Amino acid sequence: MSSSYSYSSPNLNPANFHLQCECNRACGLYTCRKEGENQGRRFFRCQRYKTKDDCGFFKWADDTVHTTVDLKYQLMAQDARNKAEFQRLYNFLKFISAVVVFSAVWNIFYH
């Protein structure tokens, strides 16, 4: 069963936040593309990132808004990440179990 939640109030949208970094410049809003628990999560950072003038500012977009809808979305996203991690570990455990059984059978019949 798949559900999706959205909200339309413009003041709750992280894209409408105008954060300034330590450089007193408007921060850029980006989406994490790196695989892992934060994949798809949005964040603000200094637009001078990886330059000599980078001030190092970083803030998750979901840390800037704390509403019931946002918290519900965060919990649903965390639940989805937990389920994916559980499935990954379960599949790994099945693989390791198969290797152990194969190894035991191999040792019984061929040694």
Task: List key phrases describing it.
111 residues; three-stranded antiparallel beta sheet; 1 helix; 10% strand
Provide a brief overview of the structure.
By secondary structure, this protein is an alpha+beta fold.
Largest sheet descriptor? 3 strands, antiparallel
Main sheet: which strands, in order across? 1-2-3
Question: What share of residues is helical?
Answer: 25-40%
User: How much of the polypeptide forms β-strand, as a percent range?
Assistant: 5-15%
Shape: elongated
Strand tally: 3
Structural class call reads alpha+beta
Over all CA atoms, what is the radius of gyration? Answer: 22 Å
Spans of at least 5 consecutive residues with low confidence:
1-14
Order of helices and strands: EEEH
Task: Give the number of helices.
Answer: 1
* Average residue-wise pLDDT: 77
How many structural domains does the protein architecture include?
2
Distance between the termini: 50 Å
Write up this protein.
The protein is of the alpha+beta class and 111 residues long. It has 2 domains: 17-64, no CATH class; 66-110. It contains 1 helix and 3 strands; from the N terminus they run βββα. Strands 1-2-3 form a 3-stranded antiparallel beta sheet, with no helix packed on it. The longest helix has 43 residues, at 68-110. The chain is elongated. The relative contact order is 0.13. GO terms for molecular function: zinc ion binding. It comes from Apostasia shenzhenica. Residues 21-64 form the GRF-type domain.
